[in-house]
Amino acid sequence: MVNSVIEIVGLRVVRGGRVVIAGLDLTVGPGVTGLLGPSGCGKSTLLRSIVGVQRVAAGDVTALGRPAGSAALRDRVGYQTQSSSVYDDLTVEENLRFFARVLGRPAAAVETAVEAVDLVSHRDQVVGRLSGGQRSRVGLAVALLGEPELLVLDEPTVGLDPVLRRDLWALFHRIAEGGTAVLVSSHVMDEAERCDQLLLMREGRILAHDTPAGIKERTGARDVEAAFLSLVQGEDAA
User: Fold this and answer.
1) Most-buried pick from 23, 38, 67, 96 (CB within 10 A)?
2) Mapping DSSP to helix (H, G, I), strand (E, B) and coil, where does residue 204 land?
3) How far apart are the first and last CA of the chain?
4) Which residue intervals define the domain ABC transporter in the entry (predicted)?
5) pLDDT tens, 110-138?
6) Which of 108, 109, 77, 85 is CA-nearest to residue 182?
7) Among 50, 48, 57, which residue's Cα sits nearest to residue 27?
8) How far is residue 9's CA from residue 62's CA, in Å, rounded to a whole number?
């Protein structure tokens, strides 16, 4: 049986007086897990809850066997937010050296992270002059500095062209093959086929959790987008 990386029981999150997530239960295992759903459905709130930076109204969230956000997870969980976490006026290496010092990581961690995201040839370039895909990889390198066992990525491919998105997903799988569990959110349904496991989310609820093939078989749909629409229609008709 696959060991769980994330365990969530009865998660309830209220933001601005609005219930964003109500009583969610979820178990996530290793590999590359995609969290897909439309913008505003609660994906970022769920990811923030998993890394321990979201105030929750109720429920238990455990990552790698520890309560989310606990001090013991600081070096074990990497997190890349939607907004940029790097400095445009610094080079790739200067950014990573800065964050390594903040995180208390040795200089060798910088080299490992640069190699992991395939930016060795760009290490001396100013981040503001990089392409969108390269810039996303710098942010990913920062998240990898601690050599995390769990990597949480909030829409890292947003705004990128199909080729750059393809390259980043290939990178996610290489990272997962190295033993790091990867949880990545997206609102682009055609990215669903690139995941080992899928979580389809709508209005704070998980509509389906299975492999892409399993979700398509369950709904009789040709692709995951059609499967998602089928699940939504079924839910609305209930």
Assistant:
1) 96
2) coil
3) 33
4) 6-228
5) 999 999 888 999 999 999 999 888 888 89
6) 77
7) 50
8) 9
